[in-house]
Amino acid sequence: MIQVINRALRTLEYVAKHKERSCSLSEIAESLQLHQPTCANILKTLVDMNYLEHLGRKKGYRLGAKCYELTGNLSYNQNLLQAAKGEMEALTKKLNETCILGILRNQKRFIVHTVNSDQDLQVRSRTERDLYETASGRILLAFLPEKERESLINAIGLPKPEIWKEAKTKKQLDLALADIRNDNLVITLSPQHIVGLAVPIIKDGVTIASLSIFLPESRYNVKNAFKTIITTLKESAKRINELLQ
Question: Domain 78-244 sits in which CATH superfamily?
Answer without folding.
Answer: GAF domain (3.30.450.40)
